[in-house]
Each structure stands twice: as structure tokens, then as C-alpha cells.
Protein 1
Amino acid sequence: MELTKLAGDCRSDDCPAVFRTDTGNIAIQGAIIERQTPDGEAIVEISPSLLKEAVRALGW
């Protein structure tokens, strides 16, 4: 899967970030929140400012 970074909280790839996938979906990188999820899924936490930056980058 190819990811295009839309927004991030720092310049490296080890920080919370929002990406567009090559299938047109959105992928989120953040701190894992400990909560039961289906196999292969996780809930992650990002800041509201990061989400706003991603929305602006998408032109929404």
C-alpha cells in the first residue's frame, strides 16, 4: 500500500500523521488506545489540530 502524507505533527515518520492511501482512503498513525477491537484493527489517538490540518489538505 502506498501512502501520501497529508498532515503530521512533526517532520519524521514516527509521529502522529494522516495519510491518503493509493486506494483513496485515509490512514491514521497515532498512539494506540488500549481498547478491544476486531483482529487487524486498532483505535489510535491524534490531536484535533492534526485532524484540521488533514481536512484542509484534502480541500474539504
Protein 2
Amino acid sequence: MITFIDEHRDRFGVEFICRVLGAAVRRFLTSRGYRAAKTRPASVRQLRDELLVPEIQRLHAENYGVYGVRKMHALLQREGWEIGRDQTARLMRLAGVQGITRRAKVYTTRSGRGQELPGDLVNRVFTAPAPRCLWVADITYVATWSGFAYVAFITDVFSRKIVGWSVAATLKAEVLPLQALEMAAWGADGDLAGVRHHSVHGSNYMSIVYSERVRELGAK
């Protein structure tokens, strides 16, 4: 109430604000109560808040603005402040800062329902006697400030080397996984004869454009 009056007193005046809001808001501060509060010495809690609020803002900024109540509480204790978790939450609200919440789960592949799926040529045995015998492909994602970046990659099981990769803002087969396949094929001079290509049964990999390209290159 005091903060609200302070912000608007130059425009409307203390008496007018207290009279109008006192009639509309139960137990709103009277003009006499406002003046008494302004002349009353600051309480210990108020003085402590005035010290901690800028400290919380500083620590929050130094930690990339991602700390929530739990981490901020632990950090303040490490900094030597005797403070409870509930008090930390209250002061973070006063400071106008909050943590980054967990994002919703992201699905990088969706099963290609209603279509015949290829057999498993690997049988969970991820070993290879030489390079270009077994390649495994998958998609992951990276959270950025502007959204999700999806990453498709192909790894040679023998060397554990990523032989093809692609980054895009979309999961479309012709944009993301196909570009990773083309990179891997380019590194193998365009001939994938004898290569077993293993991936999840996601619609990205089961799409016609992707599966036909695998066969065109000679892989199984």
C-alpha cells in the first residue's frame, strides 16, 4: 500500500488516494496511517531485505539468470547468509527474479505407424570388425535461447567417429537426417555397399525419401 501511494501521490495526493481506495478496499491504509508508516524507523526485516534484494539480483545475474529458489537458497548460505528457503522465495519475488523451469519433453522421433518396419540386422550387437560395416543413426536436440536446435548424426560403430551430422530447426526427413546421411556418404565417396544402417523406427528414418536414399547408396 505504501509503495502504491508513493508511486501515485504526486499525481493524486495522499488524502485522495486513501479516501477513494479506503472505500473500495477493506482495511486500506488511511492517510494518518501512511504518514505514521513513513516516519516510523525501518524495521530489522526491512533493513535486511534492503541488503539482500540487490545481493540476490547480483548473484542471479552472475549465474546466467537460471537459478531458482533451491539453488539460490544454497548459494546464499554458501555466501554466509543465514536465510531460510521460504525467505529466499519471498526475496526473489521482491527482486523480480526467478529460475528457468524445465521445458516440456521434446520428441525427436515418432514411430512410423501403419507401415511395414524393416528387420533388425544388428540384434543389439553394436560391434563391427572394420570401418564402414555398421553405422548407427539418431537424432537429439539442444535447447537454445531462441528455441530447439535438432541434431541428426551417424556414427561408425568400429571407429566411434561421427561420419555425418546435420543441425536444423525442423525434424523433416529431407532437411535433417537426410543431410547427415549425405555427409556420411560423401566421406565414403558415395558408395555404401556393405554398410548396415541402423536407426530407430521413427518416421524421420522410415520416410520414403530417406529409406530410398539409403538403398540408392547401397547400404542395407
Protein 3
Amino acid sequence: MTFSHKILHWYTKNKRILPWRETKDPYKVWLSEIILQQTRVSQGLPYYLKFTDRFPTVSDLANASEDEVLKLWQGLGYYSRARNLHETAKMVVNEYDGEFPKTYKGLLKLKGVGDYTASAIASISYNIPEPVVDGNVYRVLSRFYGVKLPINSTQGIRYFKQLAREVMNSGHIRDYNQAIMEFGAIQCTPKNPDCQGCPLNEGCIALQKNEINELPVKNKKAKIKNRYFNYLVILDPDDKTLLQQRKGRGIWQNLWEFPLLETKDIIERDELERRYDEVIDLPDSPEVYQFNHDAIVHKLSHQHLYTKFWVVKTNAPLKNGIDFRTLVDFPVPVLIADFIKTFKI
């Protein structure tokens, strides 16, 4: 039995029942793939169900507001995926008459769709023999064939794509691509894989050489940057507050947040009181107190955010103030969503 046949045989016995596996609709396949990028199935599944319930078709998604899309995405992270999701939906509706391209190259033209997503849609929706290569596939191939090229290097990416093409099962590409990804997710896991019960163990080079924990190889990530956020939770006598929308190309683009004072290090109340007028102009001398004594460490892929929330009570009514109770309607970073749930007026 060949490599691909063993993978398919394993899949028929062990695959999880998931809603996106019950459809060939390119919209739902695309939606699931975008949601599951850098996201575990257990975390992504509720979001997939929310999106397909709220936006049953690509037209429904295209016609939504960006705020609504971001709000529904809230808590899933990597918000550029949500913005690209919305832009791509509008692109499909406006430029492709509501129909997804039916070729691998055509799918690559969609915003936010790279090789992996295009390959997944092409194979699952249209049965096109195009191999998928995601983190799970890298792990299976690198271990089984003993490949030590870094999976995040140009040479490694090219090599693994070609290797995936050579070993794929073209006749059953729709199931095979899902099978090898599933195999990496629940059989050939990153840590403590069940090698004794693995159908590929006899031919696995990494197992033979005791290199399971060393593969796949990945070049070191960029150094983590520490940032220090001080959110000013302004409250007036009517329990109104202020939010601002993040602009530019940094983190959380187009999400809403409290006025932010970013500093070079963690600060205490005396410094905050001297500097809050750098970001907000208040007519009186407000009462300021620190909500969380220790900074909350919020970890992103290349940044760690050390965050303090400062409650700033003013006696002057806020111009353009927002009722604090309505903040739950705004798309905000999960860090701020957690604060809003915790804070009691």
C-alpha cells in the first residue's frame, strides 16, 4: 500500500465529522479555510457556524458592514483575515458575479488567498489535483521522508510543495488533501504523536532515526517586541465614555479601543496623571485610578503587550460620549472585550 493509500485508509476510519466536510460549496470551503488559518478546529468551529448562520452566501457577507464582520470575528485574532474575508466577498460578488473562480490560478487572484487556500478550494470544491501544504502537511512529510529543510525558507517551501505533488493521490484528491491534513492534526501531532499506532511507522525516517521531536525544522522567528499600553477609560457623570478606531497598518486595524497612551515602559499613576493630556483633552482635573494593579500581558505573534486600564472620572459631560453599556456592540480587541465584561460602573 502506497503512502497516499495508507493516508486515505486511515482517514476513512478516523476523520472527524465537521460541517465544512459535508459540502463542496466553494464559499463555505473558503470560509472554513480562512477561519482555520493559525486556529485550532475546536476554536474555529463556533466561528464557522456563526458566520454561515449570519452570512449563508457570499453575497450576504459582501453586503455586511466591516464593523459587523469584525464584531463577529472578535476573539479569533489576526484580524487582517477578517478584513480580507470581507474584501474578497465583495470582490467575488462585484467582479465574478457571485461565483468563485473555478481554477487554482483564478483563486489565487482573490485577496487573502495564497497557495494553500487556493489549493484547498480547487481540490475540495472542484476536484482539481492540486496538493495542499499547511503546517500539518509539513510535519507529516518532513517526518516520514526525513526532510530537514526549514519549512519557512524559500527553498523549503518550494521543495515541500513539489514533494506533496509527487505523493498525492490525484484520483481521490478531494479526500486525500483533507486526509493528510487530518492525519497531521490528530495522528502525527506536534508533541507526543502516537508512533506505535501509526500506519506509516514502518517507513517513517524520523521514527527510525529518533528525530520525531526535531522535525519539521523551522527558522527562528523574529525577536519578540515588548510594548506598553495604557488605556484611558473615561467616564462622565452620565456613564458615557470614549472610543477611537485604530487606523494604519498596525495591529487591530479598524477595531475600536479606549484612548491609548503608549509608553516606553510600565508607568505608575503619577506619570499617567502628568501625561494623559497627550491623548485626551479634559476640561477639569479628573479622578484617576488604576483598574488592574499588574499589567496584563497580551501575547501576539511578534509582540507582547503589557497593558494597564486606567479609569478616569470627569465631572464634565463628554462631547460625543458613548453609553458604556453599548460598548458590547463595537468590534474591539479581545483584550478590551475582556475588560468590558469585567468592569462594573
